[in-house]
Fold this sequence. Notes:
The chain is an alpha/beta fold. It has twelve helices and nine strands.
Amino acid sequence: MTPTRYDRIGINYTQNRKADIRIVRSLDRLLNLPDGSTIADMGAGTGNYANALENSGYDLKAVEPSQEMRSQAKADAKVEWLCGTAEKIPLTDSSVDGVIVILALHHFSAPVEAAAEIQRICPRGPLVIFTIDPRQSEDFWFERYFPDIYRQDFRSFPPIEDVVDLFACTRKESCEIEKFPLPHDLTDLNMYSGWNRPELYLDPQARQSMSGFALASASSVDSGVGSLGHHLKSGKWDQQYGHLRKQKYFDAGFRFIKFYEN
Length: 262
């Protein structure tokens, strides 16, 4: 996990990346642990999901390498912040009851080491990963306007089966995979959240909180934004994709992966 990356991306991050209640409910259900259990949140960002899970009765260990992200975290007595990475977690052996990884797996610099570290701090409790495999997405118009950014996700996000194999090597447990079609009103504005509201991608502040945009070349972003803006103004986008505005869900390839003991 690279702190300098999110020291840049993290500016004003909390304004656009708010915990979505449906993701929170899924995390709580999949963890399935009693009140008072301690959960490690790897790559916790600004703590949007750590704070939300605290409201579900858990104690959180929020592990985040970026000072910019940690500085935006809302103070909470039941959320302890730790400066660290998934490859070197500042927690003792068997110290937590469960682990969550929310859209952070693609930032791990050494996934094999991270998997071993997660096993070390939580050898028996559930591990719940929320990630995306763009290979499993429905046809997404985003690629027509931002092809370089979209293709980068195929390099950044490993196939679901590779994620399963990675963690199965250390955990030796049962595994469940659950689809999470994006709702039309997702509040956690990730790069796929504008599937039915393309105007979102014209907002530079919203793009700043999407790592795909923030790390892309200015020419790739400017070209796509210009073309999309023109097609929205002319009505061409709505002629081709306007039906999505009335659609409730879109499967962009987001998946929950849960590892647990039988």
